[in-house]
Amino acid sequence: MKRQNVRTLSLIVCTFTYLLVGAAVFDALESEYEMREKEQLEAEEKRLQGKYNISDEDYRQLETIIMEAEPHRAGVQWKFAGSFYFAITVITTIGYGHAAPGTDAGKAFCMFYAVLGIPLTLVMFQSLGERMNTFVKYLLKRIKKCCGMSVTDVSMENMVTVGFFSCIGTLCVGAAAFSHYEDWSFFQSYYYCFITLTTIGFGDFVALQKNRALQRKPLYVAFSFMYILVGLTVIGAFLNLVVLRFLTMNSEDERRDAEERASLAGRRNSMIIHIQYEASLPVKWEIGGIGGGRMGGLGCGFTKQNSFSSQLNPNQYFQSVSYRIEEISPSTLKNSFFPSPVSSVSPGLHSFMDHRRLMKRRKSV
Amino acid sequence: MKRQNVRTLSLIVCTFTYLLVGAAVFDALESEYEMREKEQLEAEEKRLQGKYNISDEDYRQLETIIMEAEPHRAGVQWKFAGSFYFAITVITTIGYGHAAPGTDAGKAFCMFYAVLGIPLTLVMFQSLGERMNTFVKYLLKRIKKCCGMSVTDVSMENMVTVGFFSCIGTLCVGAAAFSHYEDWSFFQSYYYCFITLTTIGFGDFVALQKNRALQRKPLYVAFSFMYILVGLTVIGAFLNLVVLRFLTMNSEDERRDAEERASLAGRRNSMIIHIQYEASLPVKWEIGGIGGGRMGGLGCGFTKQNSFSSQLNPNQYFQSVSYRIEEISPSTLKNSFFPSPVSSVSPGLHSFMDHRRLMKRRKSV
């Protein structure tokens, strides 16, 4: 089976297995607590409902209005600051849900907003993350030089280590800040930062929802927004370093297969000569083959790029192939009617390579 | 300024502007509704609190327990089916929050689970999405052939069109299904599918939370899980097609710059000859340069790969360069002590290329 298909099937199996294992562990960790909490809450609800003799119908109504009033209790969600916060949760796909569009127009706009905003944000974070990685690589190189190390090259291991500790550091800084401002424990805060920066965004912990912070604490609001954006960049940089290469594996294999198929299909026993050179002016190039005393042109042209290729015709047998490159100076370009001063081609046997014997050997394989 | 930096800064400015515009629009669409709803809810709460003469303290207690009881009202969340659903929302980063770990152990495991699961899932969806794109490309080609079209190549526009309509189709199928099972309007269902498949996952609409579906409707549960995973693949395939290439722009520019710097730094006026050939056996290769009557070896070796390269030494002037390839048959490999039967090298002037004149011309530029 093709490598890409094997890889894809393996990944599917791995992911499905991972889900099964996760489900089993979460079941084991949370089921009992859920049952206990459910019993406690039901008992407390019965007590209060009984204390005030609230009818079932009114109690269900109370449930509905208390649920719907939750975002309002947390603050004004849709003034500019709250809307900006919401917009961040949309395009970063965090999606806490602490506030969600109530109107149909809001829902519809939200969808269009996401369609453009999510790819834009993805590309922005990867771009900024790559810049961050490049800068870190430069810093590490300077540090290695200053420390007088013999090898100043920055390895992948160095980068991954720095990236990993940057992520941990970012989470710790956020955990410290939010535990102070939101009155959460350090662990709850760390969990909030993690769930936010991985863009999972459960919404069980949401910053800026206490004490009308969105309206009353502009500096804390600005800090929260910056933290989310910078934190996502740090995570994005780490993903850019470690994961991005794996996202293109299948495409690269597919491209390689296509090239192989193309060369097998019509160009058996062919050879491609690819010449790469360093020149500051455009050049005129020529590749010629010599076989049996004759000089055959294989390709020629004019190129501004730093390389040119030519494919050998499988029906022609050459004993050697040579190339010629001539820089075109500006004066030559202007006077293009006059032939360029180049060496004349001189034919001659050159039995450096026995292409025909090579052909015979292949047929016997 | 470097291209990568300009690109990154532009993206940052674009994203920030996009957030400002989004915030303004959401404010305009939702603020008034929010105020109206808040007033209505407050009035209704006052009415009920007054009707039963519930003390403020008891009312706040009621608020707390009703909020905490919400997931329990929606069903049993942490048995195997519910845990599997939760695990999906973690590794896909949808993160509805309809259920969230109550225990500290659950929160801690959730974080470790996400650290491994999210990259695994990203790579899996991209891999599967690429396979899907390849298959669609193959189908389109066959369809074009069957329809007797002159051009059977599948263009990027074809692929993007098919991808786009696949996404819309997937959303519509889900919208129809969930509006039936969850008793939502088609629009609310479509909005739910969109928010889910973009992994935003607000949690304002969550499937499998009515009528104890997680325990009582295994087929519907299976459908929901499959819908999320297949839907994410379709979206992932579309992103793979359209967005993935932009995620590597900076890295590719950086690599190109590094190559340019390297060639400027120490290899001025150098040339690299790269030969690509088609052979089924490993080969022994040799590149030689001829200049001033002498044959100079430029490189030789043994390779199983389909190409080899050699860099010309800038201090040596050659008038021509030739290469030799010899397939190594299994019998030759076994008898590696005996020299391989190849053509002998015969020296000879070959003034096909005047390299020295080329060098002179460069110096004058």
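qc> The radius of gyration of chain A is 34 Å.
qc> done
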